[in-house]
Amino acid sequence: ETGVTQSPTHLIKTRGQQVTLRCSSQSGHNTVSWYQQALGQGPQFIFQYYREEENGRGNFPPRFSGLQFPNYSSELNVNALELDDSALYLCASSLGQAVQGYTFGSGTRLTVV
Amino acid sequence: AQSVTQPDIHITVSEGASLELRCNYSYGATPYLFWYVQSPGQGLQLLLKYFSGDTLVQGIKGFEAEFKRSQSSFNLRKPSVHWSDAAEYFCAVGPNQAGTALIFGKGTTLSVSS
Question: Which of A43, A101, A102, B77 lies 20 to 30 angstroms, CA to CA, from B60?
Answer without folding.
Answer: A43
